[in-house]
Amino acid sequence: MAQMTIAQALREAIREEMLRDERVFCIGEDIGVKGGFGGAFTVTLGLSDEFGHERILDTPISEAMIAGVAAGAALAGMRPIADVQYGDFLFNMMDQLANQAAKLRYMSGGTLAVPMVMRAPVGATARGSQHAQSLEAFFTHVPGLKVVCPSTAYDAKGLLKSAVRDDNPVIFFEHKLLYGSKGARQEKGAVSAVSEVPDEEYLVPIGQGAVRREGRDVTIVANLLMVYKAMNAAETLAQEGIEVEVIDPRTLVPLDKPLILDSVRKTGRMVIVEEDNLTNGWGAEVAALVADEAFEWLDGPIKRVAAPDVPPPFAPPLERAYVPTEAQIIAAVKSTL
Amino acid sequence: MAQMTIAQALREAIREEMLRDERVFCIGEDIGVKGGFGGAFTVTLGLSDEFGHERILDTPISEAMIAGVAAGAALAGMRPIADVQYGDFLFNMMDQLANQAAKLRYMSGGTLAVPMVMRAPVGATARGSQHAQSLEAFFTHVPGLKVVCPSTAYDAKGLLKSAVRDDNPVIFFEHKLLYGSKGARQEKGAVSAVSEVPDEEYLVPIGQGAVRREGRDVTIVANLLMVYKAMNAAETLAQEGIEVEVIDPRTLVPLDKPLILDSVRKTGRMVIVEEDNLTNGWGAEVAALVADEAFEWLDGPIKRVAAPDVPPPFAPPLERAYVPTEAQIIAAVKSTL
Amino acid sequence: MSDAPATAAPTTAAYSPQQLVNLYRMMQLIRRFEITCNELYMQGKIPSTLHLCTGQEAVPTGVSFHLRASDYVFGTHRPHGHALAKGVRAEHILAELYGKATGSCKGKGGSMHVGDMAVSMPPAIAIVGGNVPLAAGTALAQKMRRLDDVTVCYFGEGAANEGAWHEAVNAAALWSLPVIFVCENNLYAASTPFETAFRVRHVADRADAYGMPSEIVDGNAVLDVVAAAGRAVARARAGEGPTMLECLTYRQAGHSRSDPRTYRTKEEEAEWAERDPIARFTALLLADGRVTQGDIDAASAAVEDEIAAAIAFAESSPEPDPADALTDVFKD
Amino acid sequence: MSDAPATAAPTTAAYSPQQLVNLYRMMQLIRRFEITCNELYMQGKIPSTLHLCTGQEAVPTGVSFHLRASDYVFGTHRPHGHALAKGVRAEHILAELYGKATGSCKGKGGSMHVGDMAVSMPPAIAIVGGNVPLAAGTALAQKMRRLDDVTVCYFGEGAANEGAWHEAVNAAALWSLPVIFVCENNLYAASTPFETAFRVRHVADRADAYGMPSEIVDGNAVLDVVAAAGRAVARARAGEGPTMLECLTYRQAGHSRSDPRTYRTKEEEAEWAERDPIARFTALLLADGRVTQGDIDAASAAVEDEIAAAIAFAESSPEPDPADALTDVFKD
Ligand SMILES: Cc1ncc(C[n+]2csc(CCOP(=O)(O)OP(=O)(O)O)c2C)c(N)n1
Ligand SMILES: Cc1ncc(C[n+]2csc(CCOP(=O)(O)OP(=O)(O)O)c2C)c(N)n1
Ligand SMILES: [Mg+2]
Ligand SMILES: [Mg+2]
To answer: Does residue B3 sit in helix, strand or coil?
Structure first.
């Protein structure tokens, strides 16, 4: 057992998969340059020393190329792990992800596969509107893509290994404030997502959520950074006698519907917490799911706590008004009772 | 009063706005070429003869440029109407729309405006996976963009004129089967969206939905082609004594929430119909809205009828299994009772 | 560097009579396939739309002369010729156009996405320029796997203004990937003339901007294409990196389905009809003498049989089960 | 066409002493502003991250020599110098970096998005290459409105591999738009050396691929930049279309915040320190004699006052009201 940050856990996952399978390689900007950063958040730091620059492939600043090359290499027998420095830049590769990688297998009548992973950091960190978005919902809406969003080091390692072994394109979201990146890449306001990581190999299956806290009164579904805020809110509410069940879906596509539905059938009340913008965030889909399949068990309105429908602002006081807070979560939970 | 197809109505709207305001111009691929098509669906046919090739500007095949040039020209005092041949290609310009056009005003602290219209045809028409998607939800999720989706010629003209005069970026979705395009550009399986269009000028305000049919039992919210399928379904259901209220939101951002909520408060039952893929389609947002703000009035589960989570298939029998049908709408309505 | 097309009359000497007949046969197959598709489309047997490559047959024919089944080929929205030349069977393409379960993509792809992984042709990409990053990707895989296979990426001249094209061409040059970028410059992108989209005279002029060698080729002279493609494929197999070939040609048909073609002149069409690749090659062969009219007639007859068989196959094939609309999204 | 930088020692003769002092003053202002930002950042007074342009001051200084308030300028993620040179006031930039309500973007933009519409500078764009289509757009508007204003689009050499850059540069050339594309080639994109991303030797080599004139300029010689930018701006105002200027320079600081810069050598840094644009220009001025040490000291002192005032302004300014997070999305 070792204590690891998410950045370390992801690095370990990549190392192990590259050692296990020579078809696995990394492609992205500034990921392997000698004396460089190991990507924007140090995840690949040191790997080019171990695996060389062909398997830790530094690219020009060309996101559409990165995604398309990963998809092409994947259909030709490789297992690329592609890296984008900030999730916001996924928009630059949207066609290659949504029109190509996601559709190729289907258009081919199931005669090819695109086993690629697209890693993308999300979350607001006082960098302003173009380095801060949470983009899960743009990809949960694309048939043919799987969407993963780990919130602990344990899950990050186990899910990345599963993503690498998955025969389909996987969009892998990582939260900047959860990396636990050290040194030059340390983040203000970071939350520790350090967890025990077994020495022996393990996988976390894609499609299985986790109950982070059991409770009988209200179900909260939250991902990434919001898991921690939800847990804190649950703690506070417990002192008032309100027992909240906190579910971390861990993957959004495929979504662990039974876990969520069973919880709501138990509690009868539901709050969804996401850093994504409210309108058409992934929380809307969870709400729609529950309003259909668990309607009879609902005892109150389904509440969503999300970023407002504005671009991420820069100034800290504005950003604090943008990112969902524990106070908002607590209020939402109470409004369902 | 004249009978017009949507293609004619859009052309008239563009003509009138270009005559009214010299800042208005069109930019896109194959929109003004002499002897050409007038865009993929004839909407701008003939306009370059009237306005010249500077104001009906043909471009290289460069979608990111088209969107970015439109946004740049807009912030510098022009009022561009940009054209993409198929909505699926919006992914090629996603960064310019979602990171630039949508965020520029906010990032500037409200000191500039981006009055542009981005026109995009959607809908499955046996062209296969890359010329068929309905993409509304990718844009309803972008703060800073307005999203419009007319289903009649009257609305198409009035809404496009409003979009041109709006000081913000507007994504304007048009359904291929509703254009009523003639000659070489006629579409198999087209539905007539011809309507009476007044000779005198009028506007349809962005943000106002329309009740297409009143009913007391179930509320259906449907857009574009699905409005027609919902109306047919309502007709059939009426014969069985089920009175459906059909609401065409006409614009998705801003959404006419009062109209939808009031209807559900009246009927207590809700079905959403969209050609967009189910998971995280715009219907999910409408469902989430109702499950929160009209929960107490709901007498049954909220049902969604949408395309399944697969890319649009080519073969007609497969495409028929992809596009929502009247039978599915009828079944969904009954399942809420 | 890019020069004007080699004007020296191409010589047949380097090729066996059988090879020459095969080149004729493939061009004729593509021509007849496209004309037949158009007829079937007009009869309403093929849904939606079609992008035909009549007049451009020499390009994929000449390129595929050098390809193996394991070499990848990426087609465009105008892919029938790319597919036939790569060895996708006419019956499987036609069945795909009909939307039949026996199509090379089970009817899920359609005309704009024909391909067949059995001969290493992924579905053609109908997003203009969208196939270029994918092609760089398969070429990267070929290089990393130390194969001496290559990737061919076809694109129309209009695609050279897409951002994805730029990014991927640069990467291919940078990494010396075994890919051949084959530009089918047919002077128009839909209705848009070359000069409306480019200030430079040639797409090949852009290869210099990436440090990539290029050639401008008479795309209606199949032996010129064979020769230029031979050099490019040899470089790629030898690990010497990518080449851009700009093949000057002309689309005899409309851009798609019933395009009236009023954006170009009848004179221009007539000029290019003069340069019809099949007629020119036939004349060359007969002048050359090693291939006889009889050989050509036999090849043409074989093509007619193949087309007839393809139609019979497509029409007798079953439609896909509607339930199949939900399959082939994810691989488990 | 693109040649090596003019090696002929730039002459001051063409400029008045006041103009020369102003050039010094602006470079010094940018330098001291950046160094001060770094100190304030280290003190935790500026949130998040910073991209400083120390060493690159001559480029925006030389370009802006020719600009009016109504000319548009688009900055990059490294925009402080672009903004100061365009005339955005130091106090408004610094307040923006502090995230104060008095910032040039009301604190909503931050360091990577400084701009000020009062001097026609939209928020800088932090999506590499993302500002290029926008710049082509403002230039198109200037052309359609028959103004003789121009647009300047700054970009780092790394941006030249973005698809948006390609699409927009082509359109600007095609339509003869009044835009000057100013490449700040500082040899690195974050940690990535030029050769890791390009097979060609110069970004300017790419201008040919669009039929656009270009010049390679010594970006650390402010008068060379002034001269080249003068030619480009004149062409643009005269309706003769865009120009690409590749300014060879070097980022003395790290890429962003506390970058250890271990991907480049101390020797290389030392070489470029020798070519410091401010030191070189100062030496030139003093050798030339028309500007005295006294003039320079006075300008430097004025800069210190401006910086001190900017700090005082930023620190004494109010934070934005959290409720303002919800405003400025749509214009009604
Ligand atoms: C990204 C994208 N933009 C626009 C289109 C619509 N479109 C289909 S074919 C075509 C013209 C392509 O011209 P070219 O690349 O020269 O190929 P050609 O049709 O001449 O073979 C266009 C604009 C598309 N399919 N994809
Ligand atoms: C589209 C996009 N990709 C990646 C990044 C991350 N990034 C920020 S600056 C930078 C390097 C830019 O290098 P260059 O263009 O040469 O400008 P410089 O930093 O050298 O001034 C990168 C990769 C980004 N901001 N946008
Ligand atoms: Mg063409
Ligand atoms: Mg640089």
So the answer is: strand
Of the two residues D83 and C48, the one the predictor is more confident about is D83
Q: What is the pLDDT of residue B187?
A: 81
| Alpha-carbon distance A312 to nearest alpha carbon in chain B (angstroms) | 9
pLDDT in tens, A166-175: 999 999 999 9
Rg, Å, chain D Cα set:
19
Question: Residue D2 — pLDDT band, cuts 50, 70, 90?
Answer: very low
Give dist(CA C158, CA C255) in Å, integer.
13
- What is the per-residue pLDDT for D1? 37
Q: How far is it, in rounded angstroms, from Cα C191 to Cα C262?
A: 9
How far is B120 from B174, CA to CA, in rounded Å?
6
Residue B52 CB contacts under 8 Å (≥ 6 apart), including other chains: none
Q: Phi then psi for C278, rounded to 5 degrees?
A: -75, -45
Question: Is A168 at the interface with chain C, CB within 8 A?
Answer: yes
Instruction: Give residues 137 to 176 of C whose Cβ lies within 8 Å of D.
Output: 161-167, 170, 173-174
Which of chain B's residues have a Cβ under 8 Å away from the Cβ of D141? 72-73, 76-78
Residue D151 sits at φ, ψ, to 5 deg, of: -120, 135
Chains that touch D (3 or more CB pairs under 8 A): A, B, C
**How far is the C-alpha of B36 from the C-alpha of C261, rounded, in Å?**
8
Ligand 1 binding site (Cβ under 6 Å of any ligand atom): B 29, 61, 63, 85, 89, 92; C 77-78, 126-128, 156-159, 184, 186, 188-190, 251, 255
| Percent of chain B residues past pLDDT 70, beyond the cut | 99
Kindly tell me if the per-residue pLDDT of D77 is higher than 80. yes
Alpha-carbon span A304 to A6, nearest angstrom = 27
Hey, which of C48, C51, C57, C77 would you mutate to test ligand 1's pocket, going by the most ligand atoms within 8 Å of its Cβ? C77
Q: What is the DSSP string of D209-229?
A: GGT--EEEEETT-HHHHHHHH
Contact present, B97 and B45 (Cβ < 8 Å): no
Task: Tell me the chain A residues in contact with residue B129 when contact means C-beta distances shorter than 8 Å.
Answer: 99, 103, 106-107
Which residue from C128, C195, C272 has its CB within 8 A of the most atoms of ligand 1, so it is best to mutate?
C128
Is D81 touching B (CB cutoff 8 A)?
A: no
CB distance from C275 to chain D under 8 Å? no
Contact residues for D38 (Cβ-Cβ < 8 A; gap 6+): D50, D52, D253
Task: Determine the residue of chain D that is closest to B60 in CA distance.
Answer: D171
Please list the ranges in chain C whose pLDDT falls under 70. 1-10
Q: What is the mean pLDDT of chain A?
A: 97
ipTM exceeding cut-off 0.90 for this assembly: yes
**How far is D278 from C297, CA to CA, in rounded Å?**
79
Smallest Cβ distance to A94: which of B94, B253, B295?
A: B94
Residue C3, pLDDT score = 46
Report the residue of D71, D128, D331, D332 to disrupt the B interface, i.e. the one with the largest count of B CBs within 10 Å: D331
From the list D112, D198, D325, the residue facing A313 with the nearest CB is: D325
Query: Where does the pLDDT of residue D9 fall: very low under 50, low under 70, confident under 90, or very high at 90 and above?
Result: low
Residue D4 has pLDDT above 70, yes or no: no
Residue A191, number of CB atoms within 10 A of its CB: 17
Residue type at position A10? L
